[in-house]
Design goal:
By secondary structure, the chain is α/β, with parallel strands linked by helices. It contains twelve helices and twelve strands. The chain folds into two domains: about 150 residues, Rossmann fold; about 130 residues, 3-Layer(aba) Sandwich (Rossmann fold). The strands form two sheets. It has a six-stranded parallel sheet, with helices on both faces.
Length: about 350
């Protein structure tokens, strides 16, 4: 596979492909184009011609090829989730700049598969970037088979690995506090609840403001748009007092917004919606989604850099790096309706 062949498959110019995989002025290509290019890279196992690359930069000796693997630990659909696909793309781009490429990607559901185990035992795989919180079995698998691991996500994990984090607990506190400041008292939660810091932040913020903390206001569902739809419909039907939803991520919020419209209600006049992530789609919804901005690209780039630094002996002690978030106020939140 060559840059020309990737360009033909992606329907773009060779220069666009080169800029994307070299992380040069990627704003000239849309997120969809960038993802299409990286998807082709992943599917074909494209390996950059590092010897040619070194000559272009004026190096006289060839550069060795190194590779990483990406583990989508959250769900079997994580590679198709906008948050995780953007995260993986930024890992790939940053790795490429240091002459590494992502040789393989797999999900936590693949860990029991013998072939996936063999992939990780491949000596050409120098390290693994774990995208999204991983369970105990997954951690055990990594401990047994992988020497170099870096994790990135919104929840800390109990492991002595490098962790690049955006604090999901504090982000959820910020989101719920925003709803409370608008005057909301009956606030529902839609998303995962087990070992989930965003759910804990939701409960703690309500409790600290002496507001109702009840399981009746919670729809414990996987973080997908279809489950967000189901969870919101359930709460809308059973809890008419609710005036706002806090969704654990944007994809869940998109489903919840569909449910609100299906019930003949208006956002934010009847129900306010806030979430976490700030994927590209959030600002193109109608109304535009108010959400907590997570620095997805920076998280991926930092993960690749810290993982490669560990592989090359730059540091030995496990690191925890927290990246900042902020409230992206748009159109989906307003003071509660007056009865």
């Amino acid at each position: 596979m060559t840059l020309k062949e990737i360009a033909q498959r992606a329907g773009v110019s060779i220069s666009t492909v080169s800029r994307v995989i070299n992380n040069q002025n990627t704003k000239t290509a849309s997120k969809e184009v960038q993802e299409r290019i990286w998807q082709i890279v992943r599917e074909t196992g494209y390996t950059p011609n590092l010897s040619a690359k070194s000559l272009q930069k004026g190096y006289s000796s060839p550069i060795n090829t190194h590779s990483l693997a990406c583990l989508f630990a959250r769900t079997p659909d994580a590679p198709n989730d906008p948050f995780f696909s953007s995260l993986a793309r930024s890992v790939e781009s940053a790795a490429y700049q240091q002459n590494y490429f992502v040789k393989s990607s797999f999900t936590s559901f693949d860990l029991s598969d013998l072939n996936s185990g063999r992939i990780l035992m491949d000596p050409s795989i120098n390290g693994v970037a774990v995208l999204g919180r991983i369970d105990k079995d997954g951690l055990k698998f990594l401990k047994q088979r992988c020497r170099y691991v870096a994790y990135t996500g919104l929840n800390e994990i109990n492991a002595k690995y490098d962790q690049i984090l955006c604090d999901g607990y504090k982000a959820s506190v910020t989101a719920v506090e925003h709803l409370i400041q608008l005057g909301h008292v009956h606030i529902g939660y839609i998303g995962e609840t087990e070992n989930e810091t965003r759910y804990q932040g939701y409960k703690d913020t309500l409790a600290s403001n002496r507001l109702p903390v009840t399981s009746a206001y919670v729809a414990s569902v996987p973080q997908t748009s279809s489950d967000g739809l189901k969870g919101a419909l359930k709460l809308l039907e059973q809890q008419p007092m609710i005036t706002a939803f806090f969704c654990s991520n944007d994809i869940t919020a998109i489903g919840a917004m569909r449910a609100i419209r299906d019930k003949g209600l208006k956002i934010p006049r009847d129900i306010s919606v806030i979430s976490i992530d700030d994927i590209d789609t959030a600002q193109y919804l109608s109304p535009m989604l108010t959400t907590i901005h997570v620095p997805i690209e920076d998280m991926g780039q930092m993960t690749a850099k810290i993982l490669i630094d560990r592989i090359t002996g730059g540091h030995t002690l496990p690191m925890k790096v927290f990246l900042p978030f902020y409230l992206a106020q748009r159109e989906s939140c307003a003071p509660p309706r007056q009865s």
